[in-house]
Amino acid sequence: MNMKKLILLCAGVLFLAACSRDNHPENSLVKKAGAFTFMLRPYSSERLAAVNYANTGLSQASRDSIIKEYDQFLCFVLEISIDGFGNSIENYSSGPAKELSYEKRSDYYLFGMQHDLKLLERDHETPCTIYYYERMNEITSANRFVIGFKKGGSAETVLEYNNPCLDCGKIRFHLDNSHLAIK
User: Fold this and answer.
1) Closest by alpha carbon to 164, among 85, 88, 96?
2) Measured between alpha carbons, how far is 137 from 142 in angstroms, rounded to an integer?
3) What pTM, to 2 d.p., does this model score?
């Protein structure tokens, strides 16, 4: 293993450790659809700020301002795993994905997937406005997406995801206060 790969591997392990420190496993939701497993867990505004602004030398006032801005969003980590497939999800070419080129699948997970995630509250639909695909398949077989939605006011909330590349149908997570209030 060359030095560059070793450094990347170490950085990835440190990043995973930082992200998994505060997983809130009691708040995780898991949905299984055929060979696909979807896990959703809350992601606090403090953690989002820590990841995005680590080692930037921000003043406490600037950090507090950023966290206050992030507090206006409900954020989650969505993990997608495929039984017997330990590679990056854009390399999965079975079912509907078989009809798409690697470039189209990659483009979907990097940019298009955001449009297939929505938060449903009574008579209101909120689009995904924070979206980041963690491409760390050399370290883990799970595919992680940090997603966020502008906060609404309903206690009855459903996160819905419809992936056109996977043969799994609509995935719906029914959220309650333990998933929405993650301070």
Assistant:
1) 96
2) 7
3) 0.79
Domain ranges across the chain: 23-180
Longest dimension (CA), the chain: 54
* Residue 19, both tokens: 């992200």
Pick the CATH number of 23-180 from 3.30.540.10, 3.30.230.10, 3.40.50.11500, 2.60.40.3340: 2.60.40.3340
Residue with tokens 């560059």: 4
Q: Over the stretch 70-128, which tens digit does the pLDDT of each residue have?
A: 899 999 999 999 999 888 999 998 888 889 999 999 999 999 999 999 999 888 899 99
Question: CB-based burial of residue 59 (10 Å sphere; 0-12 exposed, 13-18 middle, 19+ buried)?
Answer: exposed
Report DSSP state, residue 110. Answer: I
CA-to-CA dists, residue 183 to 23, 39, 49, 150, angstroms: 13, 20, 13, 16
The total of other beta-carbon atoms located within 10 Å of residue 128's CB is 21
34: tokens are 């055929």
CB-CB contact of 51 with 63 (8 Å): no
Q: Give, as one character, the DSSP assignment of residue 87.
A: S
